Amino acid sequence: AIAMVEDEKKRYRPTKNYLEHLPPLNLNAFETDVMRCEFERVAARQPMDTLSMKRYELPPPPPGKMTDVAAWGECVDNSMAQLEHQATRIMNLDLMNEFGAEAWKAHNNVLQHMLTRSQAQLQEYKKEIQELNWSRKSMQTKAGEELRHLESSWVSLVSRNYEIEQACVLLEAEIAKLEREKESQE
Q: How does DSSP classify residue 22?
């Protein structure tokens, strides 16, 4: 195959632009806005933005509302929401620490069971394919033997027909000879 490709490469003489019948290549077809911005940042050799910790800050009320109770209430609500969020994260980590290993073990057991079933099914399919191939081979072998038998039978019949035709030609020649002799005697 490699030799054929090399031979084809030697004989192939491309035109100036043998791809001109194709539409132009769109290199940006799969870019998202985030990817485009990141490519522009890298091209401009700008450093990557640092991780924003703003969401974890607890800002006080704006300077003009330091005495406003409602503004302080919003700040307290924000701090309570962030505290609850952190508590939920800690609870999730504790649950993962306590049950995560067992959950992974159970998941791995399910995957192992799926693998075992898939391998057994694969073996069964291979066995069925092997049996089917054996059945086909045996049918084809029998058909081949039958064809060989029929061919030899045909050859012998054709030979017999040829022999009969030859005998008929000889008999016809002898009959014609006898008729000529009979006519000459009369």
A: S
